[in-house]
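User: I'm putting together a teaching handout on how multi-component assemblies are represented. Below are the sequence lines for each component of a complex, exactly as they appear in our records. Could you produce the 3D structure of the whole assembly as structure tokens, so the students can see both representations side by side? Please keep the chain order the same as the input.
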Amino acid sequence: MAERCAVIGVGQTHHKAKRDDVSIAGLVREAAKMALADADLTWTDIDAVVIGKAPDMFEGNMMPELYLAPALGAVGKPMFRVHTAGSVGGSTALVAAHLISSGIHKRVLTVAYEKQSDSDAMWALSVPQPFAAPLLAGAGGYFAPHIRAYMRRSGAPEYIGRMVAVKDRRNAMRNPYAHLHIADIDMKMVEESMMLWDPLRYLEACPSSDGAAAMVLSSEDALSGQYPPAWIHGMAMRSEPTMFAGRDQVNPRAGRDCSADVYAQAGITDPRRQIDVAEVYVPFSWYEPMWLENLGFCDLGDGWKLTESGATAFDGDIPWNTSGGVLSSNPIGASGMLRFLEVAMQVRGQAGEHQIGGARVALGQAYGGGSQFFSMWVVGSDKP
Amino acid sequence: MSAAAARRTPRPVSIASFAQAHNVRRDDEHNEVEMLMPVVAEVFGTIGITKDDIDFICSGSTDYLIGGPFSFVTALDAVGVWPPKSESHVEMDGAWALYEAWVLLQEGEIDAALVYCFGRSSPGNLNEILALQLDPYYVAPLWPDPVSLAALQARALIDAGKATEADFAAIASRSRRDALDNPKAQVANDIPAEKLLEDEYIVSPLRRHALPPITDGVAAIVLAAGDKARQWSKPVWITGFDHRIETHSLGARDLTSSPSTARAAEGAGVSDGPIDVAEIHAPFAHQEIILKEALGLDDTVVVNPSGGPLAANPLMSAGLIRIGEAATRISSGRAHRAVAHATSGPCLQQNLVCVLEGE
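Assistant: Of course. Below is the structure of the complete assembly, with chains in the same order as your input.
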């Protein structure tokens, strides 16, 4: 049967538009060394390395894990490369966790990164393919119609997206590692920002960031570190096809199934009551109310009401994206792992200014592709 | 950690089914999904199951072959994951996708996994594409192509007195002669080694015959554990599985040896019993010599009876095909214990070893 697995070390870079002070190897090492220090370990204590990132074309390096093996202390060890679209940071952490829960390894280093300044993700996403409809507008252009569909279905007022944009950026002011620190952000500033993909304005979209995230995962008999472990209570991945007649792209079944699986493992029957804090992949403001419904925090059509009521704010009863979220830092390949990492920090009590007092159970979620790939975990301060 | 920790007794997992496309130089008529669909249908059909019997899916591929991001996304349509499935993807050869699926099956909570992989090399120029695998700051800007790098390795092997050009020709001759019995092979012929030595050099000391063909191909395997392993087919058990990586810097490596393969072989327990057959992912002929030594195989072991990667080398699939071919030798009663190997990166930088046993 599966062994218990815990997060015993976390590390991340200062995320920025351009980290031209470091190479890609320097970037991933910065996060990895911080995670090792947090776990009170060194490179030699690690059994295996699992690395993830979004498409290789974002930097122009094919299978860059080959080049990064020495920088991550992987020489002589198993090294594994995950790529599952935008959910990859979360999936990478899950692949690493399974190496422990399967009993194969004791301590695994998992790393995810993106150095977006090396290239242009929007155009890398827009390479024309034979027999495929051209996207030509990056992720925002793809998701804007789904957001419109959500607004029409739920009757949500236009300002809800702006509320999320302001809330997450204010949370980012508490997080020294966040890319965007917009001290004076308010509804008016968001409303006056340029329209990019109707209804999404510039300040309702995620930035392009350089950054990396790293975690050390451990089996129960190999615990160490500066803070108590964050125990994994449940983990799951789900995928569904991009397109077919009848697919609900606003409320994808893969997301609902994935959360049902992870809640069942973690014994969660009432997410809003039982989950103390959540980090959810919200690259465009409206995905907060959409995922509130998809993740079962409220009834269908009520997600925007929860956002409007302030329930997801830092002082609300279910704070979402205390780190500032993807809206404040978006090194794409690492963005999913940062969600998983933030909730581990919360239940370990090491989140500093963005710590939610008494956080004991937390949900991390990442999604990717055309809202079709999902990865999630629930971590807790109590041993499962 | 050591190889010893990896030598815990694994949960028995069987290669229940294997299928591959006919390997060809250029498949202009099908996209990746269309290439995969018949192979996925076959890998299910031969054991009478459907996708509904599968608990987990993992695939292996690389975007750089198709020349666009997220090539695995549409490939998933070859399976049709509705209702949604637990699914993952590695930007690695399918052999590593198989490893991920095997890891999940070790936990004992699921019993069946589909692994597939695809590589279509024909649309691009492999010499340019594979140069992008190298250190992006210090090596890739020089655009060293994979054949030139392999030639450096072959030269080092000759200089070390470990092999001759005649050895390379003998390996190529044997591989493509054996491929005559493999209906999926791309290059199969019976040309004596002496004749092959008349080939021109592509990059000295590698003559044309010592290079792998450029191949379009896909492959799939179904893994089964628990009751399903016996219900679905005569089991071919994975008894050892490990993979290791070396440094990227070619100048820091002894290219005439493969310590990562040796380490993985130790972890997988290759030497725990006699090996009948080895399917070795040695894209260049001379690499078979290096890998055979690292795996600790003597001359009694039958190497690459399928013809190996010299007969068909679909990128991202050739490693998984080694495992499938080795399993087929066991399930057909021609071998009892086999080792399969997969490689990735320049000059055998990363290596995977899988030990298979019949009952």
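A couple of points students might notice: Chain A has a mean pLDDT of 95. Chain A touches chain B through 73 residues (CB under 8 Å).
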